[in-house]
Amino acid sequence: MKLLIIDSQAIYQEIVTWCADSKGLTSYVASDFNAAWEAFKELEPNIVVVDSIIDGGSAFELVRKIKKESGDRFCPVIFLSSNLDDFTMNNCFRCGGDDFIPKPFNEVLFNTRLSTHVKHASVVQELYRKNRDLTFYHKKTEVEHSMAKQVLSHAQRHNDSDDKFLQVTRLSATSFNGDIALVKKRLDGCRLVFVGDFTGHGLAASIGALPVTQVFFDSVEQQLPLQTIVSEINRVLYEVLPVHMFCAGYLLFITPSGEVTYWGGGMPDGLITNGTKTDRFSSNHVPLGVLSDTEFDDSVDSFYIDHSQTVFIATDGANELQNEQDVMLGDENLERLFVDSFNECKLMSDAHSLLVDKIINYKGLKTQKDDITLLLYRRETFS
Amino acid sequence: MSISIKVEDESSVAIHIQGNFDFSLFSDFRESYINLVGKYSIFKIDLSHVEYLDSAALGMLLSMRSSVGDGCTIKLCGANDFISNILKISRFDKLFVIE
Fold this sequence. Notes:
The complex is a heterodimer of chains A (383) and B (99). Chain A has 383 residues and is of the alpha+beta class. Chain A has 10 helices and 17 strands.
């Protein structure tokens, strides 16, 4: 730490220098206004000690300039003065001084005061350093998140785009969490769909998404059965991910005749509605990547949908979405928004957009904490 | 401190968590039990003062499960409705004792 003393009296230069040295501070002496101003700009001291009367200009003016120059950098100024009138003292503080020590004083008193200012300055210095580090890490995380997003979206480039019958919407949170949605229609018209939600953030989440995507698209080509695919996804994630990471998800196999076979783990209930009656299907398993190949349960469930029904799946970002009053949307309200949207629109794409609007509207100005993925499916009609 | 430890008897220890059980407790939670591994066979996680729990916390519990080893039991106690539902959805009843 550096200390600048501006005083024309040799005795005080000596006391201050001696005290500064004893505390391990490097001290510099200036005797007049110009020398002090030049020294301040060049040395950027951490503490300034200045007499209220200096040669070559006003000490108050000098301190004003010093305070302006130091800007965000914390630099306490200690005034020394033989004038003890209120007017002088007031001026010392008004121009930005942080302390006032009347002359004459001895080194004991000065030492005590200096200790306080050194302590204060080092705390502030530490605070600035931490703040700078924090800003750095924050920027780094942002870059990593955007990198992860790019990797993830690249991996999903083989995805089928939305059509009239199957649509996916992803509402990304500001802090990237890693939802994944994979959709592929086979040549025989059967669809394979995976909606997943990884634990963890940023890069970590996308690392798991890569093998899942690989397994998914390979399986579509090979026309593997659902149970084989889900076991393979689980096996890969169990091997790749650290213990504390897993992936909740639904894997669905949908035939053109409305038969839906699915495996679900760690996901909220899915919904099937025709507008008047709404059924649920549950994910009955431990999420993917938690259990070893031998412990893993690959049993699947199935249901049938007719032409009047729409299937709805959402990741937990939707039912845990908070509004401005910090109240979560909840399962039942999400179901209501879905069924209302279904009833208000004839086309599924319109119902889908309306549902997204309703969800965004619920959130209001509240920041979204988790990614939301919504999937709607309606049975194909062949005309 | 949002995590506190209470030895119940020679085989059982309780870890009490207060506030939100999420990623912010990642290190603290691990530190709370890592020195107890091998000394106790029953680990009780008291969730009665936890309001919210996210998937990172589930991951932390899985981590703990793998650290304490097969011979030990981890009991998750006092979960509120919201947390019970999360535990149920993730089928943590297959991996932990939920009370």
